[in-house]
Each structure stands twice: as structure tokens, then as C-alpha cells.
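Please discuss these two lines.
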Amino acid sequence: MSWNKPGGDDKDPWSGRDDQQAPPDLDEAIRSLQKKFANLFGGNPNGNQDNNDANPENGDGLGASPVKTLAILAASAFVLWGMSGFYIVDEGNHGVETRFGKYAATTRAGLNWHFPSPIEQVEIVNVKEQRFIEVGYRTSDRQGADGSVPKEALMLTKDENIIDVRLAVQYQIKDARQFLFNVDNPMGTLVQVTESVERGVIGSNKMDFVLTEGRSEIVTQIKTEIQNVVDMYKMGIQITSVNLQDAQPPEQVQSAFEDAIKAREDKQRLINEAEAYANDVVPKARGAAARKIQEAKGYKEQVIAQAEGEVSRFSQLLAEYQKSPNVTRQRLYLETMESVLSKANTLTVDVKNNNILYLPLDKLTHPVAENSEPTPAVTNTEVKSFPPIIRPSQRDSTEERGRSEIREERARFAREERGR
């Protein structure tokens, strides 16, 4: 039997199949796709078309269904494109919207919407984050060590010394629009501004001031000047702190500088020791001087009071003397003799027949010590009389004359007292 025999089954002798599949029909594929979209957007689920679709000869039948589908697809795409314009700004961030590259608006935290790309774009900027830059050194993340950058760190002081300064500046973004649009490279510009201000401040101060007591003052001055320059450029940056990480001479002169520091410390130590010694000695000297002054004042007052008392006593005696001169004269004489003889180491004994008793006069005139043995009492039996000692006539006459004068003065004083 031939392959193309009329009325035959047109079997393929090689494949053994009953029939061959024909290539897919393009119109049938389009209709199938239309049915699926119609079912998706509320069309007839049975796939039945309206009168216009059922009549293939109608000019609007096959053309209206694809246009409707494309419109639906375009509307869906437009809705999806519009929904892509929603975005969320977290707390502490600001969103900067740009329309065709030009600034449009700044949005705050929350849900916001903008025209989707390519009409508008949004850039989220964190305005609460603490950012920092390093000038004069770079921190290695892997090793955790600081690497010096001599080009930035080395600078001259006012007294023409070279110093190695390392500075860390912390800042925040206070205006996202200015930060993004006013300066091309904000961080690089901030580094250059910081280095320039730092060199100006260090160059206006001496090396000893920078390394010792002037660190806090220099940091404050650098922070103020950096903020002034940043505000002048309108960079939208707020400087929060400036830290002077290190300030020291270069490594080539480090040993000599350490010796100078030790000498300065020794000098200060000796000054402190001298001040401590002075604080210990000076108050004692001042106390001794004050004590001497007080003693002198006391002695002065004592002498003055004693003199005033003597004057007052003399005035009183003068008044008594004017009333009775003889009595006052005698009384003064007796008081004077009593005062003089009480201090003299002399014992006068009035003995008849010119007998002199030899007694332990030194024991009588001086009191017996507490620890010494008591002197035995002298009894009358122990007193011996000796023949009179012949003295020169002049001495005898002088003593007798003195005794007689004393006796006469006593008798005269007694008579005057009785007469009064």
C-alpha cells in the first residue's frame, strides 16, 4: 500500500505512529491567552465570547480583545510602578528626594511616597550616627594598631620646633540636604579643613605649651575654628568633639626630649621639696617671733606697771614725809637696812663682855637640804666663852660708833612714836 493512497490511513512506515502532530496554530495560542486573562480579570469562565468575538468575519472581533488585554496589562504595570514609590524612613534618618537629579524635599521618619524611578529617587541619610575622621594617623582594623601619617602629623610650632600631632574629630550630620549637595566630598573636605585649622593653632603656640598644660585649650580652639569653617561652607555638619590622641616630638629626637622631660620633672620635684621645707620652717619661725614679741610686750607692760607703782608709792611717801619728815626718814632707813641685811651673808650678835660665839653660821643662814642629814642642835652647854679678841682701835671705834648710832636712832624713833 502506498503512503499517500486515497482513503488510506497515511501511516508513517518508520515511526509506526498513527498520525503526525501539526505545528501549533498562532491564532489558537492567542485565543488561549485571551481566555486566561479574561478568566483572571472577571471574564466568562466557560470561555464563551460575545457576538462580536464569535463572528470571525466581524472586523472588531479579533482586534478588540488584544487591545483590552494590553490596557489591563498596562494598568497593572502602572499600579505596580506607583506602589514601588513607597519607602520607609527609620528613626534617626532623613530621606532626601530628588526629581531628575534636582533636590525636591526632605522627609522624616515614617512611611513616605515619591514618584518612582526614573522620575524621582530617594537617598536615606543617618543624622544620629556618630562619625569620625582621623588626622595624622590611621587605625588598622586587623591589628588594632595606629599607623602614623607623617604628611598630616608633622607640623611646626611657634618656637620653630617640629611636633607629631594626632587628632580624632567626631561629627554628626545636622542637615542632610547640605551634606549631599553643597560639597562634593564632605569627608575629604572635613579632613582638609581639620588639618588646616590644626596647623594654624599649633603654629601659634609654643612646643612646651602644646605638650603640657595647653592641651585642653588647644583642643577647644581647634573645635571652634573647624565649626566656623564648616558653617561657612554650609556642609551640614555638627562637630561634637575633638580628641588630641597624641602630641610628641618626632621619633628622631624622642630620647633627647625624654631627658628634657626628666630634668623638668626633677626641677619641679626639688621646687616642691623646697616649698614643703619652707612651709615647715617658716610657720615655726613666725611662731617663735610672735612669742618673742609677746614676751617683750609683757616685759614692757611689767616694767611700766612697776615704774608706775614705784612712782605712786613715792608720791604717797612724799605726802607722809611732808607730814612727819623724821618718822618717815627713820622708817625708810630701817626698811632699807632690813632689805640690805636680809640679803647679806652676815650674822650680827650682840654679846656682852665682847664675847663672840663661834656657831655654824653657814648652816644657820642656809636652810637644810631635804636629803641631807639634820644638823644637831646647839645647846647652851656646848657654847664656850673665849677671851676677847683685841681688834685695832680704828675698827673698834667704827663698830662701836655704828652700834651707838643705831641705838640712838631706835631710841629717837621710839620717843617720837610715843610723842605722837
Observations:
- The mean pLDDT is 76.
- The longest strand covers residues 162-173.
- The two ends are 209 Å apart (CA to CA).
- Residues 37 and 73 are 9 Å apart (CA to CA).
